[in-house]
Design goal:
alpha+beta, 4-stranded mixed sheet
Length: 370
């Protein structure tokens, strides 16, 4: 009995040690790949902050298998805990398709494809503010905080070198940014999933027909909102008018390949919905164990590619058309039925009657010669 307890304790210590020393993982592709480029980012103003302590989360284009691309409005969000910053999700280019990488909360800003989302997100890092001693200090030059009383403020001019509104990294026409050494180090830090409010914001956007690209042509009437999932009333900001973006029929553009499981028809495709406060990434593995499929980088004409450590979905290998099968041979005729049981053989004829025995000689009478 003592030996069994000791063995159980030893196994528990080994398992705990594997989890303790398992490497942290960076943002991971959530299994969405599309073979048509995401639309440009709409131009819009930032709504006023609802209260001190909120951080700005920029809007982005998400994908839906029924309607195609739809806009998730930018909004103000309370971080899940102090000292965390939001790294936005982005679309990247890999092996001929556009793959979405989910955003996450972390102590530092990671790689988000060089996409200039605005309001402090210039494509590299974050200039909207910083944490110090548990308090967030806001940069007044990029945050709309004039309607509330906030003492932790400063003013720093932000120069944006990327003046276009492209929404993806790599491929033809995409941004050419690649992860820096600091951003690679961030990938090993602790990451926290989107909050419940962020999840509600995505779900509400997926159900709103006006946010579909095919209805708003790239200029949604709800480009940003002061509070998540509130698309009516004060604090709702419409996109600036501009050149219409062509509609995209979703049928045939969703790509399913290795590491990219097919979804149930009608499911809304947005960022991964996980329990708030959980780490973003695959389950921890033993040191030295490879995690996920092989990672390959496909450099398009515009350069760039997925960040190291990200899992990408590859398009399926085209298959040759199947030859026309030969006509089926006619079914052989059914075997003849077995004959009925043969009739019993005829009975043998009765043997001929025995000849009658000769009559007994009469006895000689006296005086006769017999």
């Amino acid at each position: 009995m003592c030996a069994i307890r000791a063995l159980t304790l030893a196994l528990s210590l080994v398992v705990c040690s594997l989890f303790a020393f398992a490497p942290a993982h960076a943002q991971v592709a959530i299994g969405i790949s599309v073979d048509i480029e995401p639309p440009p980012l709409p131009v819009y103003d930032q709504p006023p902050i609802p209260a001190p302590g909120y951080l700005w989360v920029p809007g982005y284009w998400a994908w839906d298998d029924d309607t195609g691309y739809y806009w998730v409005p930018g909004t103000w969000v309370l971080p899940p805990e102090p000292e965390l910053l939001w790294t936005p999700g982005y679309w990247g280019w890999s092996d001929g398709v556009y793959v979405f990488y989910d955003g996450y909360w972390g102590p530092q800003i990671g790689f988000y494809g060089g996409v200039a989302y605005g309001f402090g997100y210039t494509g590299l890092g974050y200039e909207g503010g910083y944490w110090r001693n548990g308090a967030f200090f806001y940069n007044q030059s990029v945050n709309n905080i004039s309607n509330v009383s906030i003492t932790n403020v400063y003013n720093k001019t932000v120069v944006v070198s990327n003046t276009n509104n492209v929404s993806y990294n790599g491929g033809a026409g995409g941004t050419t940014a690649k992860p820096t050494a600091e951003q690679l180090a961030v990938e090993k830090e602790r990451h926290v999933a989107p909050t419940a409010e962020q999840t509600r914001n995505v779900q509400a956007a997926a159900k709103d027909p006006t946010l579909s690209l095919n209805n708003n042509h790239g200029h949604p009437t709800v480009a940003a909102t002061a509070r998540p999932a509130q698309f009516k009333g004060p604090g709702v900001i419409a996109a600036h008018p501009g050149k219409p973006v062509a509609a995209v029929q979703p049928q045939g553009h969703r790509v399913v390949g290795p590491g990219n499981a097919a979804t149930t028809p009608g499911n809304k495709i947005g960022p991964a919905i996980t329990t708030p406060g959980t780490k973003v990434g695959p389950a921890p593995a033993a040191p030295g164990t490879k995690v996920g499929p092989e990672i390959r980088e496909h450099k398009g004409t515009g350069g760039g590619g997925p960040p190291p450590g990200a899992t990408v979905a590859h398009p399926p290998t085209p298959q040759a058309s199947r030859p026309t099968p030969p006509p089926r041979a006619a079914a052989p005729p059914p075997p003849p039925r077995a004959a009925a049981h043969p009739p019993p053989p005829p009975r043998a004829a009765a043997p001929p009657p025995r000849p009658a025995a000769p009559a007994a000689k009469p006895k000689c009478q006296p005086g006769q010669h017999c």
